[in-house]
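User: Hey, my collaborator sent me this sequence without any context and asked if I could get a structure. I don't really work with proteins. Can you help?
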Amino acid sequence: MVVGIYFSPTGGTRRIAAYVSRMLANRLDTDYRLQSYTLPAERTNWQPIDSQDIIVWASPVYAGKTPNKMLDFAMQALHGRGNKGIAIAVFGNRDYDNALAEMTAIMCQGGITPIAAAAIVDRHAFAANDIASDRPNDNDFNQIDKWIESIDLNTEQVVSVPGSADAPYYRPLKNDRTPANFLKAKPQLNVSRCHSCGQCQHVCPMGSITFHDTPDFGGICIKCQACIQTCTSQALSFNDPDFVSHVDMLCEHHSHPAANSFFC
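Assistant: No problem. I've predicted the 3D structure and written it out in structure-token form, which is a compact way to encode the shape of the chain:
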């Protein structure tokens, strides 16, 4: 069986994980299942990897690597017994930097042999309507299809990918190209627009939103944008000046369509 494991607060990584898992299962004439570790409850009720499973691990790229708040769980969950695997870094059109190097190293440490890898462009969560808004498109999926067909499923060799697993995270920049610091930024609520539906609380991967009459953002925020994109009344936004300037920089310097990268 092919098992697609993913972290996907806004749905893009899930879409790619599902597609690759399904197409790989079709090639192998076997079944596939998806296993998310996006929400706290999903991480609590984790199904271990079977020794016969082929693992597709897809993660969004946060600051050039895997999301640091999910790193400990990923290292615990991705434990195999000689399983073969595929690593997929989903990046928002800027760069995937050292994400694939980190992901393949984690798989190796967990007893999974990454035989192939890919870095695939998805719309940027910070500016979903302005940066790679149509990605992945038909051309991207055609490239993915060709890559899946090219993978040597009999190999025991670890795939070679660029970057360093131990490299530091990318430092976000403001529009003037100086460092941006928005680690403590949290969504701001426009109370007049809030319908008190509580949906934002249910989609927070950190379980950081409490809800009474309106949401309260008291816990850790990883800037994933799940609550922003889920809110149908547009009651939430990030107004932190450094965050806004960073988004402006991305729109100005990283809107040209980036290329996918495939390795096998």
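In plain terms: DSSP finds eight helices and ten strands in the chain. You can pass these tokens on to your collaborator as they are.
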